[in-house]
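Table S5 (text form). Sequence records supplied for joint modeling of the two-component complex.
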Amino acid sequence: MSFINYASREINCKIVYYGPGLCGKTTNLQFVYQKTAPEAKGKMISLATETERTLFFDFLPLALGEIHGFRTRFHLYTVPGQVFYDASRKLILKGVDGVVFVADSQEERADANIESLDNLRFNLIEQGYDLDKLPYVVQYNKRDLPNVISIEELRRDLNPTNVPDFEACATTGEGVFETLKAVAKLILMDLKKSR
Amino acid sequence: MTNSNMVMYEEEFQELNRVIERLLREANAKVIFLVDKNGQLISGVGETDRFDTTSLASLTAGNIAATGGLAKLIGEKEFSILFHEGEKDNLHISIVGGRVILVVLFDNRSSLGLVRLRVKKSSEELSTIFERLVKKSDDKEKKGGGEFPFAEITDDDIDNLFS
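The corresponding structure-token record, covering 358 residues in total, follows.
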């Protein structure tokens, strides 16, 4: 649910990064944070445990620029990936405008990816959303690791509806901005369509 | 929950600000924020420069969402008021009209009792304004809002955001 403020001429949109534990959601946000000019970003907030596992969410506000005189802001959130934090994940999906599903390309995480994607679909339905109608992109992360599943196989399992998808290595930043840009574009196009 | 977008217009924005500015004075508060339940800041008055308002809005909404989750677990609809007491500053957080969060930051120049009393009065006024706002935005949407800023958006506009 975007927030259009005609008084301050701003549009705010919420993007949620979803995916299994340790797939690199927080790393995506950290890279965006590092590479964004200071005037275009706010403080990044991470509610994490002492071992740096996301406990509730990470939050990064971005003010990208103006479109037709309206300042466009994106609020990036991650969910905690670990299975037992499901109650928190549901809360973060409230009011979402676009979703990035970050998959872990490693063979041993194949089941975790599928489980997390099912969980995303289910939790969205609970909030009254349909993943197939939301601006949505998929990122195959950790492509730099040796034991990765082929893109064809990942696509078959995780992207049957053929939404925009990207290979990435969030630690070096490869594919990170491409992913963000793609979901932002879908959100703005969706806003346009909704009128 | 509704999936329609939240919209704010100049007229209602001014009215909301008038109410929270008065609340700021009457409650002797330092800062007052209005935040939507998804974590987006609607407006703020008082010493807003001293705080990271965007983060504050996001964390407040997270806080309300988490306590709302707790409420449901024990069979309550929601906890409509939260109070956080610090050594110097305190936060009074309440839900207005079921949809918006009102955050009042105050120190020992005020008191919890005074803040609660004044918040209660202002909440009703804020609720009415938000109800009107929703109606206005629904009406405009039905009519087809020609003034919508993104109606003419192009691929280039979007690409430029990331350049």
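Note: Chain B touches chain A at residues 1-10, 12-14, 36-40, 42, 52, 54-55, 58-59, 62, 65-66, 68-69, 141, 144-145, 148-153, 155, 157-158, 160-162 (CB under 8 Å).
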